[in-house]
TrEMBL record:
It comes from Spirosoma oryzae. InterPro entries: DoxX (IPR032808). It is a multi-pass membrane protein. The chain crosses the membrane at residues 21-44, 64-90, 97-115, 135-159. Keywords: Membrane, Transmembrane, Transmembrane helix. It is found in: Membrane. GO terms for cellular component: membrane. The keyword Transmembrane helix applies. It comes from the Bacteria. This is Putative membrane protein YkgB.
Length: 185
């Protein structure tokens, strides 16, 4: 047996084991990571002057609630909401409630992009400010929340039943017909 084939067989076994481990644990780790992020950023918002997004969050909440929540009440509301979401994700309890609260929170968190674009894109060539970048990264949180939401009814990720080499062979054979077609003028 040549060294290349031996190495590839070993890598294929490792890759398959790693895939099975990821299938078994990735959603749980994603949920816990999201819980840490929401709880951590939520707790920061309870302390005036610590959150880098405090002024923008307060102003946005004031606008979205038509002035009903303003100042430190707005910040406490956002902080409490994020802490509840974080606890739901960390514990795995009331996950459906946590995901729906997160959907509401994300609408509020991303709304400054539409409400205050002149304040968030002031750099050269309308580059986003640090606050805008902070908001734009929330797209990742939305996607992660969608993945978590897809599993609350018991749905699971399924491991790929074939190894790396088999998977690559199938993908290459699927691509061959597409590569053989040529464009004629």
């Amino acid at each position: 047996m040549n060294i290349g084939k031996k190495w590839m067989d070993g890598f294929d076994r490792f890759d398959t084991r790693m895939n099975h481990w990821l299938v078994a644990h990735s959603i749980t780790l994603l949920r816990i990571g999201m819980g840490i992020v929401f709880l951590g950023f939520g707790v920061l918002k309870f302390f005036p002057g610590i959150s880098p997004i405090e002024v923008l969050a307060t102003h946005t909440t004031n606008v979205l609630t038509f002035g009903v929540l303003s100042g430190h009440y707005a910040m406490d509301f956002v902080a409490g909401l994020e802490c509840i979401i974080g606890i739901c994700f960390l514990t795995g309890r009331f996950l459906r409630v946590g995901v729906w609260l997160m959907a509401v929170q994300m609408i509020g968190a991303m709304s400054p992009l539409f409400l205050f674009p002149a304040e968030l894109f002031v750099g050269p060539y309308h580059a986003p400010t640090l606050a805008a970048q902070y908001i734009i990264k929330d797209i990742i949180l939305v996607a992660a929340g969608m993945v978590i939401a897809s599993t609350w009814t018991g749905a699971r990720i399924v491991a790929e039943p074939q190894g790396l080499r088999q998977s690559l062979r199938k993908r290459v054979s699927d691509m061959r017909p597409k590569l053989k077609t040529t464009v004629t003028v």
